[in-house]
Amino acid sequence: MEPSPEQSPHHVYPDHWEADVVLRDGGTARIRPITTDDAERLVSFYEQVSPESKYYRFFAPYPRLSAKDVHRFTHHDYVDRVGLAVTVGGEFIATVRFDRIDATGRPASAPADEAEVAFLVQDAHQGRGVASTLLEHIAAVARERGIRRFAAEVLPANNKMIKVFRDAGYTQQRSFEDGSVHLTLDLEPTAESLAVQRAREQRAEARSVQRLLAPGSVAVIGVGRTPGGVGRTVLRNLLGAGFTGRAYAVNSAFADGQDTIDGVPAHRSLGEIGEPVDLAVVAVPAERVPEAVADCGEHGVQGLVVLSAGYAEWGAEGRERQRELVRQARSYGMRIIGPNAFGIINNSEAVRLNASLAPERPASGRIGLFTQSGAIGIALLSGLYRRGAGLSTFISAGNRADISGNDFLQYWYEDPDTDVALLYLESLGNPRKFTRLARRTAAVKPVVVVKGARHSGSAPPGHAVPVSRIPDATVSALMRQAGVIRVDTVTEMVDAGLLLAGQPLPAGGRVAILGNSESLGLLTYDACLAEGLRPRPPRDLTTAATPQDFRDALAEALADEGCDAVIVTAIPWVGEDGEAEPGDGEVLATALHAAAAAGPAKPVAVVHVEIGGLAEALAAATSTVAQQRPAPAPGRPSATPAATPAPPGGTDTARTATDPGGARAAGRIPAYPAAERAVRALAEAVKYAQWRRQAAVPGKVPEFLDDTIDEPGAAARIEALLGEDPDPRGRPLAHDEARELLACYGITVRPTLPAPDAEAAVDAAARLGYPVALKTTAPHLRHRADLGGVRLDLATESAVRRAYGELTDLLGKPAELRPVVQAMAPRGVDTVVRATIDPAAGAVLSFGLAGAPSELLGDTAHRLVPVTDRDAAELIRSIRAAPVLFGWRGSAPVDTEALEELLLRVSLLVDDHPEVVSIALEPVVVATQGLTVLGASVRLSPPPARTDLGPRRLSNY
């Protein structure tokens, strides 16, 4: 007999199952458990389902639900019987239910681990990916309740439902029985199911952004009746950009007879428009926004740009208002940019959208720009405009309560109009997801990030997001691991973006420098060395050089197989009358474009000092420069460019890090007012290109580790150590407990013996064998040899007694010092290996040299777990003190292979067992052969939630 909800120990409503999701078409919906209050919604939903869909669900004509059916489908114990519904606007559009069964297919309770599952999707919403999304969520619920398999009976003609099960990526079995298809799904996530889930997530979230950026119609809500104001300004900007769709002005205060404003139809509500509106720009006071959102939702608007302020940036009351705004919009299936947004721009000629406060639509280009700050957005637009750069899309998301930089990474990943993604971020709502998306996007196009609010320890007031505890240096290292180009300022972001958008990636760090200023060439040479590049001696063309000389020198440098990139330095030419020659900038730009177009695909950057018109001419397309080239000055040779039209900013095929050679169409050549800026941008391109080459062949975890790792044994020890009712704050392990757990993963910690008095120290030394070390383990003296808490190479009993007396005389009583004795390890380099779990960023593996290098100078490298063999090798080589490991000043190189293996073992332990929330191995003495772990501390805690591995869901702000 099935237990009633009142009998079930788990009948409390599971609100953590509620989730907002993005469907395949980009619209949103809400998934939640079905309750007893849903009877009317269920009946209404069922009435709108076609007879065919009802037949597929019940295997017979079933025109209506009986009262018994309604009771059964709305009463659940949330353990053995669970029902979920998908809602839009508060009404059901789909349901799913599972019932736990035994081996004979009869109703059962735990420990039975199989359940029968059935779906029903309203016909009007089929094809939106509703059933696929529901399967992810009901499978997660089932796993939580101890169910490991789903069984389903499907009619052979129900191809859509069979496809949902088949494409989910779970291990499954199919058979044909009694006229129906019997499906069994193993609910344990697989690599395939996770890949399917993330591919669907990418398509859905990219589509949700596309709906905002490419609307067929836009309504501006809050257009003032008189010139001025935010709404009227946005409408003017929308019309000024030449928006290709339909535009409407909406204001409830419009007079009855007012039919138009600024030449577009004027309405008092969306209902008066009489046709669908894709995008609404909301520019009304915050207290009137809920009314506007409801009007939009009831009339089928697909997305909102909320410019209104007065939300989370205003404190607790505003934060609650912001949460309610998101809840309200998502309940209607809409996504939001904002609130407190500056707006969005799409430069596609098919759209020409400027739904922002920017007075002019920027030039078209290949750069996508996302910013969380309106002020920074204005500065970036201005800077890009001055440099002649163009944008594909621009988004200033304000408080980004819903749509964030992650969504735009999903969109830009496959956007053919965007070659480079620039992001100014003040907070990371989901760092794990950001890192995953950035890594995938960076594999096909550069991602450049400036992170604001780096040192404040908290997000800006308007951003209600989790705050990570990991330091900014760690965040930077993790971004670089994902291929993100992390820069410090918006100026550096523009500098790097211009180079990456207009030039191919370099094959290496060999740089040719040429120009007509010896001093500027030397500055560039020094800057290259400082950035880790390999510059060749500057080639001085002398101040008498002509544009033709520049062209010839650049062509020669590009043809040189020993050169990967070229930096051109230029100062103005001075005529006989002491004045700079007019038109020099355009003529020089023409010459450089010609040489670049005819040469092999290598990046070119220009450093110039006050040459009028040069930057603008270099930023123009080659064909345009050729048409507008001024006549050369009398007596000055002309530069005749090749008649090769330039592509619109270049494509990814022209941006490869290694090119087989041959001519290429010249892109926009970036110009910089200072050598350091050009070199820094080039250095970032070199590092990114190297990452791209390495990412093409991903690293792996060596298989030999599998035979030496006891994963079940470690799991059993962790379960026993945590106990049945673990402390949520966790617990540190004792020395022997830590040693035993680490040993399950092949990590041997050299044993220590307590020495509460001198006699115990002598006995311990005899048991371990001489020579030994005597160390204090008090927290304030641990790993502090500089304070005298360590005595090494004690080879005799008398030496141990003498050292023990010195320690207690100098530092305090034995009870305070907690001395221990340990056998001496072979001489080597002292290092430290740590792994910690940050609730926002995930598990992080760190490495450095023990003592001052890591603790005082912060010379520590970091990687996200799990690490590969390549990650481990890079980890030990990326610290500044790495030469110490490889034979610095004639010393013998240490066994870095053993060190890399240790890093891999620690990574696997933390990745396999999320209960291990921190590990510190210190010191790890790496000798010329092998290594010794002298100290280890481990902390266990109930595993934190892994939001990145669960079913797809939008963040809750």
What does this structure look like?
The chain is an alpha/beta fold. Helices cover 34% and strands 21% of the residues. α17 links the parallel β26 (565-570) and β27 (604-608). α14 (490-502) packs across α20 (675-695), α15 (518-530) runs parallel beside α20 and α23 (758-768) crosses α24. The radius of gyration is 33 Å and the shape is flat. The relative contact order is 0.06. The model is unreliable at 1-9 and 622-666 (pLDDT under 50).
Which runs of at least 5 residues are low in confidence (pLDDT < 50)? 1-9, 622-666
Q: State the helix count.
A: 28
Structural class estimated from helices and strands = alpha/beta
What overall form do the CA principal axes indicate? flat
Q: Count the strands?
A: 39
List the helices and strands and how they pair.
Layout: E1 19-22, E2 28-33, H1 39-47, H2 51-58, H3 67-74, E3 81-88, E4 91-101, E5 114-121, H4 130-144, E6 149-154, H5 159-166, E7 171-177, E8 180-186, H6 191-213, E9 217-221, H7 230-240, E10 246-250, E11 260-261, E12 264-267, E13 279-282, H8 289-298, E14 303-306, H9 316-331, E15 335-337, E16 343-346, E17 353-356, E18 364-371, H10 374-386, E19 391-396, H11 405-413, E20 420-425, H12 431-442, E21 447-451, H13 472-481, E22 485-487, H14 490-502, E23 510-515, H15 518-530, E24 534-535, E25 539-540, H16 547-559, E26 565-570, H17 584-598, E27 604-608, H18 614-619, H19 622-628, E28 671-672, H20 675-695, H21 711-722, E29 731-732, H22 735-743, E30 752-754, H23 758-768, E31 772-776, E32 790-794, H24 797-811, H25 814-817, E33 819-823, E34 829-838, E35 842-849, H26 852-855, E36 860-864, H27 869-877, H28 896-912, E37 916-926, E38 931-933, E39 936-940
Helix pairs in contact: 6-11, 8-9, 11-12, 14-20, 15-20, 16-17, 23-24, 27-28
